[in-house]
Request: fold
Amino acid sequence: MTAFQKPVTTEAELRELIGEPRVLALAKQLGTLDVHCREFIARSPFLLLATSNASCQCDVSPKGDAPGFVLVLDEVEEAFIHTRPPGATVEDLDRQRQESYTKRLY
Reply:
């Protein structure tokens, strides 16, 4: 069978193809923001804000400002604050307010 003749539809099929993740790959998944993550976020002048709604409609918007425009509230949450024009639009802020599907990539 050549590649792409049978689509992968389950996690078990995917595991059969690529195997289990290595220890190093699992170790980089953090449950909380450690001191290194918080430092990186505090110094970052740029992020990509990704949101999606209940209908799975997605949007990704680039955001940037002086380092410190994102505040780390605790080990789990960061606060994206960017209200200077042409910064966050009403749509950006409203999606963050109403949706649990918001991610930031630094």
Q: What stands out?
A: Helices lie at 11-18, 23-27, 35-43, 90-98. The beta strands are 46-52, 58-64, 70-72, 78-80, 101-105. The first strand starts at residue 46 and ends at 52.
